[in-house]
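Input/output pair, single chain:
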Amino acid sequence: MAIKKLDSIFRPKRIALIGVSSNPDSVGGITLRNLVGGGFNGVVYPVNPKREAVFGIPCYPDVKSLPKVPDLAVIMTAAKFVPQLVRECGEVGIHGLIIMSAGFKESGEEGKVLEAQVKAEKAKFPDMRVIGPNCLGILVPGLNMNVSFADGMPKKGHVAFISQSGALCTSVLDWAYESNVGFSNFVSIGNSMDVSFGDLIDYFGQDPNTKSIVLYVESIQNARTFMSAARAFSREKPIIVYKSGRFPESAAAAASHTGAMASEDSIYDAVFHRAGLARVFDFGNIFDFTDLVGRRRIPKGNRLAIVTNAGGPGVMATDSLISLGGKLVKLSDETMQKLNDYLPPFWSHGNPIDVLGDATPERFAKSTEIVLEDENVDAVLVLLTPQAMTDPTATADAIAKMAGNTTKTIMAAWLGGASMREGTQIFNNAGIASYGTPEQAIKAFMTLSDYSQNLKMLYETPKEVPVSFQYDRNELRKKYLENVFPKAKILNEDDSKMLVNDYGIDTTHPTPAATEDEAVAIAEKKGYPVVLKIYSPDITHKSDVGGVALNIENEDMVRATFRNMVKTAAEKRPDARIDGVTVQKMVNTKGGIELIVGTKKDPIFGTVMLVGMGGTTAELFKDKRLEFPPLNEQLARQMLESLKIYPLLSGWRGDAPKNIDKLIEVLIRMSYLAADYPEIEELDINPLIVTEEDVIALDARIVVDEEIMKQPAKEYSHLVLRPYPESLIKNCTLKDGTEITLRPIKPEDEPMWLELLASCSKEAIYHRFRYDFYFDSHEVASQFCFIDYDREIAIVAEHEKEDGSKELIGVGRLIADPDLETMEYAILITDKWQKKELGYTLTNYCMEIANVRGIKKLMAETTKDNKPMISVFRKLNFKIRFNEDTTVSVNKEITENL
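Output:
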């Protein structure tokens, strides 16, 4: 398996260094010295046809001459030799490569050609994995293995650091030595020709020595792999990311407001948010936040208390906290009483807790201990400034000793110079994150608390929003692909609104008019007042050319507006084809809020959705939120609640709230539209008017992706997340005649899933989980109902009861390995529905799904006393093995005939 093959790189027993030289200051010389002198407990083979020995170690002319096949080969020759060397490594069976050589795509067109040659050679050996080219190498402190040209070795720790920048790696290592922070793995991936961020997240996500992952990202290439891997592990292991290149100097011209507003960085921000990652925006915060996470003291929430011996730093920390959206925790009455009893009468009597300038080490430590005992407090920041009576070192020692009695987060900021260094070192050794300023500490803390909140929001159970469609979506799609999309790259307003309306989003209906007389006739038929808009396939932003006129109330106004609008548009856009105007009924939007809703197809992350403040000022204020389809109720609600304009939607200063439920439905319908049409490059609804009663699209514009029209895309390849697999919904009948529906689970099923488990006996639960499984909590249920359909499928059996309500009576779950080659299968049937062949029906259907997905092998495990399920496995020709304990292991090659 591809991910497992990474063991050849990170757990090698034999390493070949190809191109190593006797120059101690060369890349090869430093790497050899790091390995041999660093305590690596394996075999190192220097390879260089021009050397008999390097540093007294015998040298081999090529990899074919090596006495044993190495697990890992490190290439550090000139770039032009690399393709040939990759082929030679593959031919002798080397599974792991690190290419340190530079001179590939980062160097220009010739380098890109050379890198393509390397890829072509690598492709001949599917079992080979490659890090690089143009990388610093890797360090695995737990194995004393420094396969890089970076000096020194950081201490063993629990943070995996992955960077596209080799220069940044050396800076981080320097900081790590000084701060005494350790790493489980340290990786420079360079150009990421093969091994990507997603691969490494999958690998380190399964590594028991890695508790958190830090990423330095310049660009992401395989977006779907990255998103899938990050979502799989971000819940269990914090993943921190710094994205460089946030503000590129130029961007491609956009044909819509959505295209202009959905910048590259805002899309990356949406990716990190949806994946549950913690993002830091300042370069220095990488170190601060890595320090905090590396100490393994993760706060459960964002409730902060500050203990200080001076008012000024406390105010600085408070200002920083509030400016970043945080709040000081209100201490409980019990805590206040304890502090009043212990501290001198002139303490601050609130948070920040000012223990006064004459505070002894004992007063600092005891006050901090009292505050940490408060159930309202998630974390404490201890601030110390040097004063005449202050003993920074002894105070740090007292805090460090006290910290051993709590699991809550403690941060420290010892403000000053040389007199603070010893205390700071005490914190580093004790696993307490320390900072030079209060602001640094607050930024790190807020990033961590934002991350925690992000995860919480990511797994909030959505409400069920019934969404039905007036037309068959497949037939609808056929109509637009054959008759509408071929008309023009930018569809006219009428065609654009027609598609939006077909997806259940109310629109005004414009009718084209080529002459004044036609415009008058249409206006009188629709009824005054009306709206006139310029009708041109070449003009996207109509207002910019005077192409929108509202409240036209009679024939004379129609004629005058028609003439002026066509004339003005022709003068401002002489290159544009103008076909007249469109006429539509004027909608009463009094009290309505203007929003923009749209989609844009990003070349890396596929289709992204946007909602924000709309109208002509949409791009000016840029009050927006991006997300990736598909959406559910909770995601759509989060998008709206994150907007600055949201208070106007929810009811501001006595105004009636707008129809937010209908607006959420509109966003969900838009996500269906986005998922169904990879042929849409950009889509704008601007403005979308939201009133107390309704949500109406007043204008719409669709830009067609002509390349996709020529070469149809694979289903859902334009989405970074696999949508709910509707195609897997199947109706069937059990042997007793009961009709059931088999379908994939969804987040909205959480209440029914909990009822399902509650109706099972302890024996049934034990057969499924093989321990006394405690399921009755949202945290547990979300792990089983919020799934990534790319690598996990849970098929529920749904039954409609006599009263019309529905219940889940069984569930079969398939979980794939990261390489999508094997799947682990588990099944649970409620006691009431056993012995009705539901187990056979569910298992057989799950096998069909695995076969369609290209899975090679299914595996499952149960207990010896689970005879009904063992019987099902026998019927379906699984291989069954009874283990020495009470378990039974079964497996089946899916390539067999089903």
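The two ends are 24 Å apart (CA to CA). Residues 154-158+165-250+262-294 form a domain with the Rossmann fold fold (CATH 3.40.50.261).
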